[in-house]
Structures are given as C-alpha cells and as structure tokens.
C-alpha cells in the first residue's frame, strides 16, 4: 500500500487524490468523507531559466498542492485542533478548540459509527460550546457537545462491543466523580467513580475495563473539611437597605452589623424606622453556596426582629431553612422564619438545599417593640476558596475564621478588576502585558487559603472565559506554583487560559501538611516567552478535601457484566497489583499486549519502579524498570514506547534513555531512541510521514517540554521545540536523515483511526512542509514544478528556539537568506547566498551572512567570508566578471581597512578582493541594490550613504573595476535607493524614497550618457517607499512596484504602464512584500489589462490572502491571488520568501508576448531557410538568362541539309586578348 501511495504521489496530486478517493480501489465504502481538492497547477515555464531557486527566512517549504493546505500558524497558548493529512503528508486542520485535547476514540453502536468522541480541557470545539467532551462527525466535519460533565476529561475508551464510551479525568457528572459512561446519554457507573483523577482506561482480554489514575478508593467521596466552616465575606459586596431609621443616629447604616456579634449600640446595630417593615440586602461580585446563616437580634430599647424571610434575587425565590427552636426541636421555615425576643446569643439557620447566591435580601416582616433590626450577621459555606480579589476572601473579624488572603504583584498599575456581568461566577483580575519586563514572575497573584486541617486535597484553579471580556486574541498560558509541605519542593502546573467559556483545572491532587504552623499557597504567573501582548487573568483557587473508602492504589478492574460491585479487591490481579505498590501510586498509562498488561506512572514496589507488567500478578520489568516517572506509553507491535522524565533504568545499566525509551516485549530488552531528549516527554503518537520522495511510513512522534534532541554517534544535537519524530525503519531521528523530504513542527497529543478517513485523525497543533531545509530551495521542472534541496542547512545561532538571528541594523530588517545568485562562467560553478544567517562550512566552521557554495564535478564546498562581522546583513548580490559584489548593512575589516555597506569577493581566487573599494560612509549606511552596467567595467551601487571613500557621492555611485575607484553620477539626487535595474545599456531605473532636484518621487530613470535623472510620471503619488521592483515587459516600458504605505504601514502593489500607475488591491492585513518577478506560463489564462495571458506575477514575502491565510509566494494573474509556496520556521510560525533567482536571467526578459515551443521554432526556421535558398536559385537563373540575352546569345539551330552548326570565326574568340583598360565582362 505504501509503495502504491508513493507511485501515486509521484504521478501528481490530482491523480493521487482521484484514485485514493475512488471506490473502485478501496471497496464499497466509496469516497472519503473528508475529501481533498487538488490546487490548480501554477503552470510556470522554467525551461529558459536554467537553475531556479528561492531564498528566504524559513526552515521548511512546500508547494501549494491542495486547496486546504496552508502555512499553519502554531501558537504557544495551549489551544489545539483536530487534524488529518493531505495525500502529500502535510497536515490539514479540521476543527479548532480553545484548549487542549487529551483523548479520542471512534464510537460505534450496533455496528454503526456514531462519530469520534473527543475529550480534553476545552470549552469550545469547532465553534460549538462544549465543556471538555464532544462528538465529532467525520461525514460532515461537525461537532455536537455531550453536555453534563464539569471538569477535565483526560482519557477515553470506546468499547464498541457494548456500545459504551468510558470517560475518565478530573470532573463531576451525575452522581459520579472522575469516571462516567456514555451510551445514548450519560450513565452513572455502579461504583460512583473514584476519589481521585483517572488518567488511563483500557480493556483487558477478559473484557473488563481497567482504570488507572491517582485514587485509593471508589465513590464520590469529596467532603468539607469542617461543615459550615468557611465564613463568607459579606463585607466584600455592596450593602444596602430599605426602611432604615433616620431618627436614631449611629443605627442607620446596614453595614454596621457585618462582623459584629450582637453588641447593641451605635455603629454596631442596624435599625429599621419604627413600626414598619423593610429589608437588608447584600450584592456581590462573587458567587457562593451558603450552608448556614447566623443572625443576631437587636435588643436596643426593646426593639427586635420577630420574623423574616431570605430571598435569593438570582431567581426571586425564598429559601428554606432548618433551625432549632427553644425546645430543642428542629423546625423548617421559609417566608416567616422567627427570631426570639431579647435573645443574648445568635440563632443559626441551616440552608436545606445548596443554592448559588450572589445577591440576596432579608425581608423583615414583623418586629418586637417599636421596630426591627439586627445587631450581627454571619454567613458560612463548606467550600474553601482563595480569590484573587482580596475583598472576596474569608474575613478575620469574629474569631471564627483565620482569614484567607491574596497578594497581587505589582500592587498597582497593572492588574485591573473585571466585573463578571453575569457571565462568570465572580469578578476577577486581569493584566494586559505589553513588554517582556512585565511577562515575568514579577507579575503574580498569590492565593493564601484558610485550611483548618491537614489531609488529601484536590486543588483546582478557575479561569473565566475569554469571550465575555473580549481577550481571546491575547490569552495565553500561566504557571501555577504551590507549596503544600514545609521544606519540600513546590508543585508546578501549566494552565492554558484560551478557553472561550469558564473552566477549572485540577493543578494538584495529594496531601497538604499544616505541621508547625505551615500555611499552603498557590502563585499564578505568566508563562515566559509567549507572544505579546498577552492577557493574564486570575479569579480563584479551590481546595477540596478528599476522603477515601480505601482498598485501591491507582488501579481498578471493572466487570461491566456484573450489576453490583464487590469491595473485595483481592479477587482481581489488577487491583492486587496496585496494592503491592507503595501507597500513593500514580498510574498514567495502561496498555494491553495479548495477555500481558503494561502499567506506567509514578510508583514503586518490591523490585518495581515506575513501570510494571501484569499477568496473574504484578511483575517487575528487566533492570527494575525506570528511574523516574513514566508519563505516556504507546505499543506498536512488540515494541513498547515510553516517555516521561526518566534518564535510565532503575539499576542505571542502560544508557541513552533520556526521557524516552523503547521496550521489546518479545525479548524483554530496553533500547534507547538515539540518546533521548533534554526534557519531559508527555505524549507519544504514531504519525504517517512521507520520509523520502512520497514513501509513506509510520513514525513515532514525541511531544513534551523538551527543547532539543541529544547528540548521538556522528549526529549533533538539534533544536526540537517540544516535538521530535523517530523513524523506526532508519533507527534514527527524522532530523538526522540526510535525504528526508519532510519536516514537522508543533505537538501531537493523541490520534485514532476513523472509518471513512483515509489518514488518521490527530489532535494537537502541527505543521509539516515537504522539504525540511532552511533558507533556500530549488524549483525543478515546468508546469507543476517540484522542490529539491539546496544542499545547505542553516544552523542554530544561539539558545533561542528560532534558527535565525534578527538583524541588529534597523535599516535592513532581514533574517534568513535574503538574496542569492548563480555564477557559471570562466570555468566556475558558484552559488552565492546572502542575508543574516549562519551555516556550517565544509571545514566544520561556522560561516555567516555571505556563503559561497562552489561545485566542482560531483563535489561541493561551502565557505564564507570571515572578514565580515557577525552582525552584518547582506541584502544585494551582483557580479562583474569574476568579482562578486555584496551589499547591505555590512561591517568588518579587510587588510586593516574597515568595510561599510559593501564587500567585494574574488570568485576566481576564493578570497576577498584586495584592495577593496573605499568604504562608504554616512548615518546607518546600507547598500540595497547593485547593478553592473553591461559591456563596461562599471558597477552601480545604490542605497543609503553620503560618501564613497573621500568622494561625495550620496545615494547612488558607481565603481570602476578597471580603475579601482569610485565615480559620481549626475547631480540632484538624494534619499534612499531600494531597487535598481538597467532598462537599456545606458538607462538605469532606480526606486526607493527619492528626491530629484528638490522634488520627491518614488521612482526615476538615470541616463548614464547624459548623467541626468528623470522622475517617473506620478511616481510621487505612490503611497510609500518602493521596496520591490520588476519589469512587466521585455522592452521595459511597464513596471511592477511594491512597498509600504506611509500612513498605515500596509503593503501596496502598483503597475506602471502607459505613463500612469494602477493600484492593485486584495492583499490582506500584515502582508509584507519582499520580491516581485514576472514569469512566463506553460498554459495561458484569460488576458487582463494588468497581466498578459501567458504571464503571471510572482509576489514573494509574507503574503496574506483574505479568506485563505498566509503564503510565502503567490501568483497574480491580473484578477486574483493564488498561493504558490508555503513555508514555516522551526518555532511553527510562518516563514517568508524574499527572492527568486535564476542561473539564466535573460530567460526572464521574454515577457508580454506569446511564443512557440522550441520544436516548432526549429521547423519554422528550417522552412524559412529552404525558402530563401529556393528564391536565391530562381533569382540566379533569371539573372543568368538576362545576361546571355544581353550579350547576344541565341539558341542553337539545326539545318536539314547538314548535321553541323555554323562555324564561329576565330577572331570572335581571340581578337581582343591583347587589349587593356577594361575588366572582363561577366
């Protein structure tokens, strides 16, 4: 099948897509639900151009071959998507979510596919609000929410034999905790879930469901630390009243009674006006579930409240209470709850039902004496919260509580309070970070809860949705660091805040120790190195005590065929395996291989470390297992792949197991994957990739918090930025395979096979392009070109995850390979590449910014120009004979003399030329364009400078290579030149931001004979400086120009023809145009006023096409834009193409007219030659006949009488031989 796929892809994407979706080849199921539409062929005619290459700032590149193919933008904010692959192996995004996707499985019932169940930490999937779980339909690519779960889904198992989906995680649903099942709706499991999170679910050969996680008992067993033990901060809201007294000073303020315990008097008591009812009201920016209300009645001057009612203003209903009367009996009340007269203590009222409250009234219906009032009020809840807004936290005012607090850093100026407006359960804090200095641990919120006792706690952080405050575009991720034990390392967790709707994440499950007065805390800070600006939000953290029924330790086997659950766990080998481990085992992954189960996590036992096998009992793996946590496992045949944060086996006998390893279940041996990676591996996902020329095979992707893959053998370490791919057939990492034809960036969290989908369904965010080489690639073949490696890899240039350095000079903001040229003369075959980058030379040294690739026969050498400073940027290249001129923001030293803006390299000797042209000078010197004049020794240099050596020569100057000196051009020019080209032997076109004799313009011509400048008509009206220029016709009477508008920094594109400019719209926001080139086509399009039918304009840079997205090069046919090249960088962001260059530039000048194929041209030429020869022969015959007639020749006649002609007298032939003075007649 893979060999067939390779052949189909080689035949072309259109044919591959047709055959792969044909029911004839793949059976009766017919066409795939997710179909791929081949992109139109670019029809580029490269036949006259020789070698064709593109240069830019990218780490991978591909041609646009399918309509859904794009430069996938990878983010680091935690959001993920559903993905599949095009036939060329690149990824297509099907649906996006607002957070992570942890698990997927295809769900079938009665043999019919119901869809793919998707679980994770999202609140939106595919534009649909879906809390943590949803059903994706592959036939329609639509999402249906499975409502009913509150929390996070971590694992799924679709038991298609019974038509049941088992769901595990950290959530509540129905009467179950952390585990639930779905058939046609949610169904409680008979054991009511677990008292801790579930991380893995699998099915064993006996048909039983095996749960793995961090639990030690069954059931929904969360409980309050102390019932009614947390005080609600009633002072944290707005207090109001109706009917307050206006005649008794000091008793009119309804806030008097908060945090008071019955001491009557001014400032401590609130009274109503005499002989009337009224109410006391509290309105809050946070929600709570009250469990107890404590009221203190007033006795002031015989007054007091006799009966009252509690109204929940959220729904307008009166709430019911239980209370104990004076006889000690429990009573029920609602609309008329009594308070005893003259009581000296408080009266407690217990809420009968848990109801959320954020706005309530206490109505006073009747009173004692002259009027009603209260001398104190307190409200209690079970929940332990610490709010970011400190005013919402538990108070410390009456000796009942010790108070909860929060601390905000910085204390002022950055964090702002955001009202909930009914869209979330409390107001919260928000910080808008715009600088790296703000996006550090110095921006934080510290949550300090009031926890009255030690115990096992589940700690969850609440995050408000981004839709309500309009910050979805700037949300990212935050770190949570918690101290739970005195003197022990802190726990850490990362939480994404990209959720559209409210969510909560469990960040810790385990013990909290309050020994020696220790107080736990949780600190929220932004994750470093995220895109700016970033919005960070902080709402609240909950601490929930966990109790247990006992008997389990991270593993549980459930028999779905039994109606009741036995609490005798010793009957199960799986349950018993857990009990053989040290208490507190954490199981992260369970997989089954025939009759043997493999369990990975964080645990230990007799001879067991972090991984074990289960047959009839728990068994240790060879070498005692692994020396640290196992986070994930994947079984492929007899090879078990494991990822985590281990470094070796438990007995330290197998080296190279840095965070990833493989175990052969047949031979029971460990094997390293190279030398591993430098950080934790969190997921292992199989992925199909076209490793070499369309040869698809299953590889192993690993994702996690690592940044590089370790060096092994002869392969150095390389940056991985959280994802690396192992190729089992090559026993090596993808990056180390020399002829690899694909590269992948991003992360993959899970995958599943789906009926009707020709490739697996993946979750994560991933980008792959066809060619994994940096900075430059070749285009080969006409019509539908292919990409080939340029044979050069750009290396890492520092500790940054990016493979590129940013130019330090603001005048030329170029990274990567910016320009290039081919040279194939004088017995030399050289490719020169310039920009701001680094590569490895043939001698192993680092070469930077100007690289010379010399080809001799089948060998190739890579060298550089060591005299250039590392900060240099090369922006322009040109040659005169064997001298290579390189211009840009260049600095360095040659023969003790400084370089500034220009360096000359002798390609014949392989060294910098000596002497160099005298250095340019000025402020921020930059050479942007170089144009040698044909048939001369003059090289024209344009840019931003004022002098060439000692010669005043601003903006444009020419260097005579014969005389080795600079020469000035005509007068009146100033400004900055960004592009130049010769339109004739003596006319130079210049563009940029120019002034000619005091008049501003963007484009002009220079006559080298007359030494005069002439501005192009209306060029001053262009919206901004020209940054890219090309001719639109072979006679150079029309031009394409692109640049940046001065008023809004947007890109513009204009055509000059017939003496005027035509603006072209249709490019999207943030477009950057770096290069323009008109190309001929193999097939014509409809002719337009802007582009002839046999031409297309190639626009390169970072081009945004509305309703499509970014492309690095696009084709413009006069009416619309079509992607041509797609690129990405190693960090997953879109790349860019700066320039297209060819080895035969004269082939680019046959523009604007139709032409015939070479064969027809030869035949026509032959016919013309034969016709000319025929005409010459006929003309010769006619001339000869005329001459003879003129000289008296007549036809020979015969006589009847004699068979002889008349004799010619001898004097006629010989008589004039002696004469002189006239030449013989011909």
UniProtKB/TrEMBL annotation:
<dbReference type="Pfam" id="PF20843">
    <property type="entry name" value="Rax2_3"/>
</dbReference>
<dbReference type="InterPro" id="IPR011043">
    <property type="entry name" value="Gal_Oxase/kelch_b-propeller"/>
</dbReference>
<dbReference type="InterPro" id="IPR015915">
    <property type="entry name" value="Kelch-typ_b-propeller"/>
</dbReference>
<dbReference type="Pfam" id="PF12768">
    <property type="entry name" value="Rax2"/>
</dbReference>
<keyword id="KW-0472">Membrane</keyword>
<keyword id="KW-1133">Transmembrane helix</keyword>
<feature type="domain" description="Rax2-like C-terminal">
    <location>
        <begin position="902"/>
        <end position="1145"/>
    </location>
</feature>
<dbReference type="InterPro" id="IPR048266">
    <property type="entry name" value="Rax2-like_second"/>
</dbReference>
<feature type="domain" description="Rax2-like second">
    <location>
        <begin position="228"/>
        <end position="374"/>
    </location>
</feature>
<dbReference type="GO" id="GO:1902929">
    <property type="term" value="C:plasma membrane of growing cell tip"/>
</dbReference>
<feature type="transmembrane region" description="Helical">
    <location>
        <begin position="1156"/>
        <end position="1183"/>
    </location>
</feature>
<dbReference type="InterPro" id="IPR024982">
    <property type="entry name" value="Rax2-like_C"/>
</dbReference>
<dbReference type="Pfam" id="PF20842">
    <property type="entry name" value="Rax2_2"/>
</dbReference>
<keyword id="KW-0812">Transmembrane</keyword>
<dbReference type="InterPro" id="IPR048265">
    <property type="entry name" value="Rax2-like_third"/>
</dbReference>
<protein>
    <submittedName>
        <fullName>Cortical protein marker for cell polarity-domain-containing protein</fullName>
    </submittedName>
</protein>
<feature type="domain" description="Rax2-like third">
    <location>
        <begin position="385"/>
        <end position="546"/>
    </location>
</feature>
